[in-house]
Every structure is written in C-alpha cells, then in structure tokens.
Design a protein that fits this description.
Helices cover 31% and strands 26% of the residues. It has 466 residues and is α/β, with parallel strands linked by helices. Strand 6, helix 10 and strand 7 form a beta-alpha-beta unit. Bound molecules: ligand G2I.
C-alpha cells in the first residue's frame, strides 16, 4: 500500500475511529518503506519565496516542548512583546534590550529571520512618555527609534515602525503622538527608522485593514501619499486577527492594491478565533479560513510572508481578551497539529507522505485510542518524532499508553509530554501527569528526539487507554 496523502490520512483516522467498541482490534495502516521527513511550514513557504513564522514571547522560551516546535517549524520569528517601548525604554533615556535580545538570539540559533515589533505604538507605552511636554516629544520619539532600531540593526529584517495609528472609521487614533505631534509623526517615525537601520524593511502595521473598507482606505491613502513624497515606507502589515468564517472576501484584492503602490505586504499576526470549545465543524471552517488566507498571500507576488500570533492555542492572547473565545491557532495546547495546520501545510504545497495509524481498543467500555506517528525532522544521525494520541472512545480517557518497536537500531532520547521507558527495542510511552485525560475525539501529542544511523522507517505504534 502506498503512503497516504494528508487527506487520506484523515480518512484513515476516521475509519480507525469507527472500529471503537470491538475487542482488541489492531489496524496498522500504510507503513511506508522509507521515512522521508515531512517538510516544515517554514521550508514549504521558502520554496514559494515566502516565509512562514510565528510570534513568541520570552516566558515560553523555557518550555522545551514549545521551543522544539518554535525552533524547527518556522522560518521567521516576531518578537511578540519585548521590543515594545515599555520594555526597551522603561525610563527616559534608559534602554534595555535584555529580553528582546533573548528572542533574537533564539531566532539566530535556529536560522530564523526576525520581524521587529514595534517602535511607535500607543499601547505598552511607559507612563513617562505620556507626560513628555509636546515640544520634546518629537525628539523623544526620534531618540527611541534611533536607539532601538540602531541596536537591532542588521538583525531585524522588517520593523513595524508605527502600529495601529488609525480608528475603524479611518480617522487618526488620538494617541499621545497624534495629539502632541499631529499627523506628521508617522512620516517622522519612518524617516528616523530609515536613518537608524537603512537595510531593514519599514512597515506600517494594523488590524482590521485586511479587507477593503474605511480603515484600510485610510492606510492606503497614507501609503500612496508617502510614496509620492518619498517618505521611506517599504511594507504594510495586515495583522489578520480574524474571526471564524469571516475572512474578508476582498483580502486578496486588498493585498494587491497595496502591492500596486510599490510596497510589500505581510500577514503579520494571523489568528482565527472561535467560540470555544472546538468541535470538528469549527475546526474544518478554521482550516478553510487559514487556507484562504495563505492562498490570498500566495496569489500576490509582493505578499512576502505570513506570521501566526504564536502557534499553540495554549499560548494565545485571545482567551484573556475575548472571554469564551480561543482555539485560534494551528497547534493545540499540547502541540498537536490541528486541521488548520494541515490546511496551511497543503496550501503551501505540502503533501503528507509518512504516517502510520494504529487502533487498539481495550474492550467493550467504549474506550480506545489511535496513535499517529510522524517523523517530523531527520538529520544526519538523528531524528525528531511526534505521536498524536486521539481518543476514539465515547468517554474521556484517564490515561494512555503508546508502544512501538525500534527495528533499525534507532534510539529514543529526550521525550516531552509523556513518560518513556524502553526494554531492548520496545518503547513504551505513558501519559505525563497532566495529559492523561483526553476528551472523546480529542488529541494530545508527545514528541521526542532520537538517534538513527541507518534507515528510519515509520514504526507501527499501538495505543491503549486506561
Ligand atoms: O493584542 C494582540 C496584538 C495586536 N497587535 C499588536 C500586538 O503587539 C498585540 O500583541 C499583544 C501581545 O500578544 C500580548 O501579550 O499585545 C498585548 C498588549 O496589548 C500583550 O498583552 C500583554 C498583557 O496585556 C500584559 O498584561 C502582559 O504583561 O502581555 C504582557 C506580557 O505577557
């Protein structure tokens, strides 16, 4: 049997779920003869001349399960918080790059480009800026930009120079900069950024400008006027904090009209939120929405890349700001890949070639699970594996166990989100103390790195519940 495609894999998973309730049914599917690793989203995007990245924040850099994905899957990182004014100039004239530098160092260690975020914004602004006298604020703003963009010169490919300067109706937001400096502050910020880092691409970044409307018209008119006047602007960032089922129908046309002004466009903060909890229908809609956004970007040559605003539903800003909403990203809380991940994967040109799904049910009590094993990365002498456990039963699991055999002398080394034991070639992974409970049709994912010096075929993994 040939290896299944991404779509075939999901059909097979559904077939496996259908056998729940029978006694000790084992079904091994499609063990491929070789284990060519699936490409990452970053690699797929690069093959299309784009980047695919994620925002991140400092606290998560100590979570190895998180950094394993962040460091391998993405070609680009945006500093989610710690390059903002509050962090970089907490007191007038005193600059602190400690945390921003940590994220830039992580990106450099993983060959990822960095979008800088953000030099001038009304939010996360230290209180002292608000009380700077009007006559001093232009100098203060220029000095901030000169220092921060100067510090990151050569390490940041894009800067979000000015963020969120417009209201929904297209008028200027009455920020301290607008009130004390007037309309010209945005142009002044771009000029200061160009002087500080002539090689960084300079972006205006905002939300609710993905489709054509009053707000995006205002940004469009500003960019057109900047280009006419020679104000240095290189790109427009469409944040794309979207709502399930509501991708603006004019997204592609809007990207194109900005591109036609002679600037690049980036999707800078993509997430697509839903009422929680997730279910299969919402997941499918979300996958379709992510696909639409990726396709719109790919359709316009000057759409240079896409960034998700963090990648895991456990690390998203949405639930704290929109109570009752969330699940907006492409990985679940346990770093399992969601349908939205596979939609992005396929839209970027990926096809799934290596997977094994096995079902073992434990009896007539409705419990059961599948284990889907993937080699997600392979390099000389080593590999990274990932197993997604899905509860195919009607009741929540209280624990699960996945077993497989290392037939070619491979080893399993560091493993996260599970407890591993080995006995010769036999590998047994039980749930960690925090992920034994999986809701019906829910998933949890564990990952690991190991050594492999010969072939590394995908094994048949069995899953049992308790
Ligand atoms: O609000 C979502 C994004 C909209 N566009 C601009 C982005 O910069 C913005 O990012 C978010 C961060 O993801 C949040 O993490 O900006 C928020 C602030 O407006 C960030 O939230 C702040 C919390 O409000 C603080 O309480 C917290 O200390 O994050 C801080 C660091 O975790």
């Amino acid at each position: 049997m040939s290896a299944p495609t991404g779509r075939a894999r999901r059909v097979l998973a559904a077939t496996a779920a259908a056998v729940v309730g029978t006694l000790a049914v084992g079904m091994a599917v499609a063990a491929p003869s070789s284990a060519a690793a699936e490409p990452t989203l970053g690699q797929l995007a690069a093959a299309k001349g784009r980047y695919f990245g994620s925002a991140t924040d400092n606290p998560t850099l100590t979570n190895s399960a998180y950094t394993a994905v962040l460091g391998s899957e993405f070609g680009q990182i945006t500093v989610g918080n710690t390059q903002k004014w509050q962090y970089t100039e907490p007191r007038r004239g005193q600059f602190d790059y400690t945390q921003g530098d940590q994220i830039v160092a992580f990106a450099q260690a993983h060959n990822q480009i960095v979008r800088g975020h953000t030099l001038v914004w009304h939010n996360q602004l230290p209180d002292w800026v608000t009380s700077v006298p009007a006559g001093e604020l232009l100098g203060v703003m220029r000095n901030h930009i000169a220092n921060v963009a100067g510090h990151y010169k050569g390490t940041v490919v894009h800067w979000d120079v000015v963020n969120e300067a417009f209201e929904e109706n297209g008028t200027r937001r009455q920020s301290v900069f607008q009130q004390k400096l007037g309309d010209s502050y945005i142009a002044e910020a771009f000029k200061a950024a160009r002087a500080a880092d002539p090689n960084a691409k300079l972006y205006y970044n905002d939300y609710n400008i993905e489709g054509i409307g009053a707000k995006s018209d205002a940004v469009y008119n500003m960019v057109r006027s900047f280009k006419q006047q020679g104000i240095p602007i290189d790109g427009v960032g469409l944040q794309a904090h979207l709502v399930l089922g509501q991708v603006p129908s004019s997204l592609r046309q809007n990207i194109q009209r900005f591109a036609d002004l002679g600037v690049d466009v980036a999707i800078t903060e993509l997430d697509i939120r839903m009422r929680t909890p997730r279910d299969a229908a919402k997941d499918a809609q979300q996958a379709a929405d992510y696909r639409t956004v990726v396709n719109a970007c790919l359709a316009v040559t000057r759409c240079v890349g896409i960034t998700v605003w963090d990648f895991s539903d456990g690390y998203s800003w949405i639930p704290s700001v929109f109570p009752g909403e969330g699940a907006a990203l492409i990985y679940d809380e346990n770093f399992g890949k969601k349908p939205s991940y596979w939609a992005v994967f396929e839209a970027l040109g990926g096809t799934t070639t290596t997977t094994t799904t096995t079902t073992t049910t434990t009896g007539g009590n409705g419990a059961g699970c599948t284990a889907t094993y993937r080699v997600v990365g392979q390099w000389n002498g080593g590999y990274q594996g990932e197993v997604t456990v899905r509860n195919t039963g009607a009741t929540a699991t209280t624990g699960w166990t996945v077993r497989w055999t290392l037939a070619q002398g491979q080893t399993v080394g560091s493993l996260w989100n599970g407890v591993v034991s080995t006995n010769g070639q036999e590998v047994t992974v039980r749930n960690a103390n925090y992920n034994g409970t999986v809701a019906p049709n829910g998933t949890t994912t564990f990952g690991f790195t190991g050594s492999s010096t010969g072939t590394n075929p995908v094994p048949t993994a069995t899953c049992t519940t308790s």
